[in-house]
Known about the structure:
Layout lengths: L7 E3 L19 H13 L17 E2 L2 H14 L4 E9 L3 E9 L29 E9 L2 E10 L9 H4 L10 H12 L4 H12 L10 H43 L4 E6 L5 E7 L1 H10 L2 E5 L2 E3 L4 E9 L5 E9 L4 H14 L7 E3 L4 H10 L4 E3 L2 H16 L3 H12 L4 H14 L6 H8 L1 H4 L1 H4 L10 H14 L6 H12 L19 H7 L4 H14 L2 E5 L5 E5 L7 E6 L4 E4 L3 H5 L4 H9 L26 H25 L3 H19 L6 H13 L1
Helix pairs in contact: 4-5, 4-6, 5-6, 8-9, 10-11, 11-12, 19-21, 22-24
Function: Putative transcription activator involved in regulating light control of development.
GO biological process, one term: regulation of DNA-templated transcription
Protein name: Protein FAR1-RELATED SEQUENCE
Amino acid sequence: MKPSNNIWIRRxxxxxxxxxxxxxxxxxxxxxxSSQLVKSETMASSSSSEAVFTPYxxxxxxxxxxxxxxxxxxxxxxxxxIRKARSTESQNLGIYRRDFVCYRSGFNQPRKxxxxxxxxxxxxxxxxxxxxxxxxxxxxxxxTQWYVSQFSNVHNHELLEDDQVRxxxxxxxxxEADQERILLLSKAGFPVNRIVKxxxxxxxxxxxxxxxxxxxxxxxxxxCKKTVQENDALLTEKRENDMLELVEACKATVERDPExxxxxxxxxxxxxxxIAWSFGDSVRANTVFGxxxxxxxxxxxxxxxxxxxxxxxxxxxxKAIFFGSVLLQEENSHSFAWALQTFVRFMRGRQPxxxxxxxxxxLRDAIARELPNTKHVIPLWHILSKLSSxxxxxxxxxxxxxxxxxxxxxHLESVEDFEHQWKILVARFGLISxxxxxxxxxxxxxxxxxxxxxxxxxxxxxxxxxQSLDLFLKRILSAQTCLQVFFEQVGIASNLQNQPxxxxxxxxxxxxxxxEEHARSILxxxxxxxxxxEIMLSMQYATTEMANGSYLVRHYKKMxxxxxxxxxxDDEQIHCSCKEFEHSGMxxxxxxxxxxxxxxxxLPEKYFLHRWRLESSLVPMDDQHVQSSSDECTQAFHSLTAxxxxxxxxxxxxxxxxxxxxxxxxxxxxNMPVIDEFALNMVAxxxxxx
Length: 690
């Protein structure tokens, strides 16, 4: 157990604080994997063992190990286990005979009694059973193989049922993942009986249904105790040395990047305890995109015993952008408070309007104390990822219905509706006294849409942003050999020049409305695409003017509820009851519809937030020549496809031919590599010349 690589794992302790609660993340499918693992360990009759037939004399195997595995599967299916007995060796063939026997074969030889006052008398399970399988090696055409030379399946003892055979020592195995978990719990001071209970809860199995017993865990912990102590000493030394190296790396970075900032704390022995840092590019980016910040504390290092915190924002292209990072020794309110203070200092005193975090009481207290004017929001994906751990076992077959109803309640727009439906949900599934329901209710002002719909979130609650954030974390959380390498990986991943360019391509006009074309000249492709979608949908809405100058806007098919839009002409203010602009900084379809009625051909400047504009881009965008080239390509294809459609409708034969050719052409185009801007420009020139 030499501490070589830096291993990162998800934080697994439940925010409710109960030691028995362990979070299995749905995104990783850990719960189902664990359950399947236990089932496969406890029920050997599934998959491979079902295909095992009774061995027979003359049966051939490629190796003696294959034969042992085959016989072992047969034995487990039939209620006994086997062991390796005698082997015979020659100078020419090496080992040429293997004897596998029933675990109750032979008799125990009497041992010399130990010189103790009360020696233990262990009862032997061996009873002279004659069940066996003998192998002999032969070489046929230069190929080595093993064949069954003797086989007997006659037992002189009772065979065991499935729920008993799994308890035989040969089948009681502690998997590597369980070994790591057992050692972690043991280091935390958990007694063996409690460790077994935790593992049963984590895997969602009934008591006594693990593929090993309490005795196995006790023996494993005892065997590893010395190794663990030695390993802890190595890890402590490694952490101290690597933290010092990380501080030196920060000092060296300041020489290359004068705007790079870092800070750290030390304990009473002068050892580095916590450390935080941010790059100059990140500090500058925060001045534009620091209105909403996500503080991710999902991962911690097993090797160093440190919690990783990463601050993210979202840029005007919808991508996660790195603001800073912190490593904390403790997960408590005091440590989080230091991290938040340091981050605000790094960002030159700027506090975000909104901060997004996971559920954590210590973090919530720290935010309330250090960022009193910042709205604390918990993204719904943090809630949903824990539902299975909390409710799948107590609800059983009702869990799917609960999850669907929970999702519906989460998205209610009215606080009154949420409070009413929440009570109905809790009562329906008998969860009134459930501690996790109480936990969610205490945090509801931070995660329920009805409470946060008027908070500015800059589209950081979308699945796209969550994926962008996960992509960044995966790029930095590999198995580094030391913290300095991790620090370098963070620097590479956060470099703006290394950011992926997907989604930054120029967007073409779809409606030919002056309002749309004006917006395209101001917004980034990402932001324009969102607004363009709302512009197109706005055409499906009808308006009814009210006496006070406001408007009721509803879909022409009444597929969704009506919205109230208030128009104040004096200073060109528009407010919609859906709160989309307050939520994302993008005008909604309802407001756009009213502006269309008011004959607006350009949106008022105030509704193009600086954070969504092209001019705010941290990465240079395409020039106007590429935009005009894209328009030329669009016009050329529109003309060509219109002519093609006209010609193909003349006859069925023409239509079938065009359809077949276009299908093949589309498939070929999809498999082609992405053309860069220069190539696109050349294509546009060729089209215009022809």
